[in-house]
Specification:
The chain is α/β, with parallel strands linked by helices and 297 residues long. It is built from ten helices and eleven strands. β5, α7 and β6 form a beta-alpha-beta unit. α6 packs across α10. It is globular, with a radius of gyration of 19 Å. The protein binds guanine (GUN).
Length: 297
């Protein structure tokens, strides 16, 4: 059997298109564009690329992008002052502080300073708490994107066995909450889990978010499982090549022989993150303007 490839790239493009259309309607109704502010501290090359793509995607979706690039030596006070200014700014609906921050800045205290109603990353403890008790708030973009791919593929997840590998605050924990809300039976596995292959074997749904190249093998999987691969790992370069290949946390080729459906890397979960960020920003804009967000946003 060869698994269906879950085309996150196409799904994300459709979502961005839909957000762009609704963003134009929002502008007409509210008399202003929805706005996303992205803050980057320091000159980490990967972060520079992400922030650049977020800005372009925001503008392409008919929203306003406000970029703040601050030097590496920015103090906590200076960063907090900027966050406070963005909290007060009525043209800013969403605030994203790009992580990781330079090591002299405390990520938790910076994130806590963002207004929970502008926290479109869903990283604030208030939003983590809202998700945990089932109140509406902002859900981290990557797990929400995974959930969209899963429900598109499987419909009702009720009663299905889901195993999430990884327990980060950004992916593993919110992913498990979302699956639980959808009535799946959820296990969170991690580096101390005993018999990880045996645990994964039970799963109708596997979400791998550990950051270890091709760790999940075909023989770990139940026949017909749906596999969502959140990992993005670069292999060492082959001789004569400058860069190694990008691979996920799942051994894609062999897993495709056992799974019913699987996300590729690249082109699976990755493109969903920015699309969901735009979606969250437009939801924030509707709430801030006292308008009702469209149902299918
Ligand atoms: N760094 C890598 N991914 C993300 C993300 O989704 N949000 C933020 N704020 N920083 C990141």
């Amino acid at each position: 059997m060869t698994a269906t490839r879950i085309d996150g790239k196409a799904f994300a493009a459709a979502l961005r298109e839909r957000v762009g259309g609704y963003a134009a309607s929002f502008e007409e109704a509210a008399g202003r564009k929805a706005g996303l502010a992205v803050v980057l501290v320091g000159d980490d090359p990967a972060s520079q690329v992400y922030v650049g793509s977020k800005g372009k995607a925001t503008v392409a979706a008919n929203m306003a992008s406000f970029e703040h690039r601050l030097p590496d030596e920015t103090t906590s006070q200076e960063l907090l002052a900027l966050v406070e200014q963005l909290n007060q700014d009525e043209s800013v609906d969403g605030i994203l502080v790009q992580l990781p921050l330079p090591s002299h800045l405390d990520e938790q205290s910076i994130i806590s300073a963002i207004s929970p109603d502008k926290d479109v990353d869903g990283f604030h403890v208030i939003n983590a708490g809202r998700l945990s008790v089932g109140q509406s708030g902002f859900v981290p973009c990557t797990p929400l994107g995974c959930m969209m791919l899963l429900t598109d593929r499987l419909g009702d997840l009720s009663g299905l066995e889901a195993v999430v590998i990884g327990r980060s605050n950004i992916v593993g924990k919110p992913m498990a909450q979302l699956l639980l809300d959808a009535n799946a039976t959820v296990t969170i596995a991690h580096s101390r889990t005993k018999d990880l292959p045996g645990v994964v074997k039970r799963a109708d749904i596997v979400v791998a978010a550990v950051g270890r190249a091709e760790m999940v093998k075909a023989e770990w999987l139940k026949e017909g499982a749906t596999v969502i691969d959140v990992g993005i790992n670069r292999l060492p370069p082959e001789p004569g090549k400058e860069k190694g290949r990008l691979v996920g946390d799942v051994a894609f080729n062999e897993a495709s022989e056992v799974a019913a459906a699987i996300t590729p890397v690249p082109g699976g979960v990755g493109p969903m993150t920015i699309a969901v960020l735009l979606r969250n920003t437009l939801v924030a804009a509707h709430r801030n303007a006292g308008l009702t967000a469209p149902e299918d946003l």
